[in-house]
Amino acid sequence: MYKQVILSKNKEESLLRKHPWVFSGAIDLIDEEILDGDIVTVFDSKEKFLGTGHFQNATIAVRILSFEETELDQKFFNHILSEAIELRKTLGLFSKENSICRIVHGEGDGLPGLIIDFYNGIAVIQCHSIGMYQMIELISQALQNSLGESLKAIYSKSSETLHNKEGIVDSYIWGTCKTPHKAKENGIRFSIDWVTGQKTGFFIDQRENRKLLSKYATGKKVLNTFCYSGGFSLFALKAGASEVHSLDSSKKAIELTENNIHLNKLTENHFSIVADAMEYMKTVDNSFDVIILDPPAFAKHRDKRHQAIQGYKRLNEMAIRSIKPGGIIFTFSCSQVVDKNLFTHTIIAAAINSGRKIRILEQLHQPADHPINAFHPEGEYLKGLVIQVS
Ligand code: SAH
To answer: Are 333 and 68 spatial neighbours (Cβ–Cβ below 8 Å)?
Structure first.
């Protein structure tokens, strides 16, 4: 028997629509001795069963893992993880040319609070809830069961996402692997370090957009701002760009980029810049044919949305002003609170301010291994546009 959470009257509606979050304000009664991370069963005010999930004393008080009366045991994780992995196999993401993918994308895979990224044999687990962290042994076993021989090690990296809570350490929980470790995205090799790198070591979510850039980059002079480990730069170089300039404010990121460029023997025509993107954009002449703008989330919370919009507008306006006539801009936002429409309007406003005409050529989003649970639209976070500036 799990501990119980009973909702106030008429607060069950979102759960009946299979939205997996219970906000603290919706709760009427909870077991007294409940602790962060406990598994709880949620009932409506008439004590009708609604779902089972993880409790945390926070705004999102319960994250539902099952809307059926099931136990969250080994069998549960075996089933849900094998389904998630099967999807990635169908998508062709476990192949000779591609050994990088996201195996579990939180709510999108029915596992709120859990991210698992895969880098050529290594699974990196990132928990966003204590409850999920407490299930890491079950998750680890389920990964071994589903991936078999293709799994070499499992690394747990949750100390940052769980705010350095006592007792949470980053370490291998099964097997071990020296970092950096090499893996491939669409035929290009990347050296990935989940121990010291940002997030789980690599921005997997831009895979399809990097591939798309290949189409636009041949013979072109490209500026890749916010480059991190150089993903966009590598695809542009591979496609035969005449020059690629990679920019990041982090020296470490530029080192990662340069390593990856060496690894693929694409050093010719590549230039590195350590600088603040906003400052650098002020100095850009009209010589770039293609500019990539992939900043970190400018707004992590709704109350920062207005400020974020101003930031996106300023950055994009500078790029639109300074690009060569006929040039192409790949522009992104990964702020969840800035939706597709708002982002598009922001880019249009930036174009109006710049006095130049733009056309939207492509509308971009997160890839299929970062699926959106249709009952949890908040899962949509990455959006982008390819625009042409006349
Ligand atoms: N496009 C990358 C991912 C970008 S992540 C890829 O395909 O992998 C965002 C990057 O922006 C980080 O590397 C961070 O160091 C960098 N960054 C953050 N603020 C910046 C700023 N003001 N100017 C330039 N780079 C910045």
So the answer is: no
